[in-house]
Amino acid sequence: MESIQNFLNNHDYDVRKTGNARWIDQKCTHDVVSMIADCILEYIGEDEQQTFTVKDIWNSPYTNENIVDIFAKPDVNNKKANNEYDKFFGQPIKLLAYSGILNEQKQGNKYIYTIQHIELLQYIALRETNALKFLQLYIEKVLRDSKLFHLFEQFFSQQTTTNFNTLKTKFTEFTIQYTKINGELECGRIFTKILNPLAFKLKKKGTIKGHLSKNNIILSDLQYNRLNWRDEWSGKDKSQTRSEYAPTQEEIQVEKLALYAIKKAKKAVRQYNDKYHLGISEIQQSNETVNATQIHHIFPQNEFPTIADYLENLIALTPNQHFSMAHPDNQTRYIDPDFQYICLVAKTASIRDSLLVRKDDFYHFDDYCFVLNTGLNTSEFNLVNDLDFAVLLQKIDEFYSPLENNKYSSFLLS
Fold first, then answer.
1. What is the mean pLDDT of residues 222-233?
2. Mean pLDDT score, 285-309
3. From what superkingdom does this record's organism come (predicted)?
């Protein structure tokens, strides 16, 4: 969070100076911004200097594969969808450019982009919650620079219909005065994307359908795609095959979103392990010399879908460790509890290094506690103080005692 704030503090986002109303727009929800950031990173590959246009991103195979069903959009190559996709991809990219994460240059009648801040783009792409944190800080900084934030503070202090209408009117007047937008309806759509992320952060009321919300804003109010795929996926009847029924569009979306989230998480853990562990297994074994090509769910995906995409539930292993130890005899639906314990000890070390040594915010301590609570069917890890890895390990040990009977105990000495 500190690195994001430092980045934002180095920029002046005063809309009165730039006249740019596209610093945020109606498609700029945190889930969309995170996915577009991921699509950009996938498009450029290893070449951080690669230039691209909005159409390059929406026409890429990776984007087409992941966007179509998840967001219930027509095929990105459908000419009738061009206007919709221009907004869907263009608006988040404009936001990333205004913020300074991307560089924007106009060549002829099109805009060319390059990445200015790869680490922050990677942070946003990694998790939707990361994108939300960035948006909340970014929105506040733009409002402060534009001398508007005090109006929002007044509304959050006294959440009346009168104060809401006053805020919305003043924001609309400001936008029409200092930018090229001249319609109240468009101002209202943008206003929602500004107010609600701040309201969610403060646990306050915001706006729903143009009016003051009756209740405090919740996460689903912020999402472009309101499907709670974890809940939906958890409740799916896994004994029923696809051939036994015709899946609805919503069921297809849930399945696609789940698989995309898991695939993205595995990709991130693999890249992180390659960067900081040189591709070696997170479980060190003196006689294991091959690279860690397998990303393994410590608590299995089929049993614990709610944590299937958590980085903290994934560990990089060698093929032998994965298919002979984690899943004996390659029984992928079975987890060896002895090796599961070894995985947790190793993962704890990886997370500790991330948070206390590198301080890179790749892993989250509270998310790891949630993974442990879910996988071990307990609430014990809610009692662990933030970053207290010693107590956390003690509690893990309690769930796998007696440890002297663990057939892989020698791994702890290597």
1. 69
2. 91
3. Bacteria
Position 288 scores a pLDDT of: 79
* H-run or E-run covering 302: none
Same domain as 266, residue 193? no
Which residue do the tokens 């087409």 mark?
A: 64
**Domain membership flag for residue 226:** no
Tally of domains in the chain: 2
Per-residue CA distances from 107 to 19, 63, 123 (Å): 20, 24, 29
* Domain limits for position 404: 248-413
Is 115 inside a domain boundary?
Answer: yes
pTM of the predicted structure, to 2 decimals: 0.89
DSSP 196-265: HHHHHHHT-EEEETTEEEEEE--HHHH-SS---HHHHHHTS-TTS-GGGS---HHHHHHHHHHHHHHHHH
* Residue 358: burial class (beta carbons within 10 Å; 0-12, 13-18, 19+): exposed
The residue length of the chain stands at 414
- Cis link prior to 247 (omega < 30° from 0)? no
Is 370 part of any domain?
A: yes
Tokens encoding 63 = 């984007």
Which of 64-78, 88-102, 226-240, 248-262 bottoms out in mean pLDDT, i.e. has the lowest?
Answer: 226-240
Residue ranges of E strands in 109-195: 110-115
Residues 68-78 pLDDT 10s: 667 655 565 66
